[in-house]
Amino acid sequence: MPIYEYKCARCDHDFEYLVIGKSEPQACPACGAPEVCRVMSACGFVSKGQGGQTVSSSAGSSCSGCSAGSCAGCGH
Fold first, then answer.
1. Residue 45 lies in a domain
2. Domain span at 34
3. Rounded Cα gap, residues 45 and 66, in angstroms
4. Cα–Cα distance between 74 and 68 in angstroms, integer?
């Protein structure tokens, strides 16, 4: 059962919804408006980098044990 991300057209509230079968959210949980649409989710992955170091695309701005501001700064 996938969890999809939705956005309210009225109040711009972002929320997640567990889809069971072909069910869709009937209204925004913040304002109750029925105008909601599914948005593209960011994907994440985990892979083995150099020397077996675990690298995650959703780990934030830097790797664990790395002082660079981004993964581009340290080459991992």
1. no
2. 3-39
3. 19
4. 6
Domain assignment present for 72: no
What is the residue whose two structure tokens read 């949980």?
A: 29
**This model's pTM is above 0.70:** no
In DSSP notation, 15-71 reads EEEE--TT----S-TTT--S-EEEEPPPP--EEE-GGG-EEETTS-SS-TT--SSSH
Q: Which residue has the higher pLDDT, 19 or 71?
A: 19
Residue 17 in tokens: 């919804």
- Looking at residue 18, its pLDDT comes to 92
User: Cα 11–19–7 angle (5° rounding)?
Assistant: 15
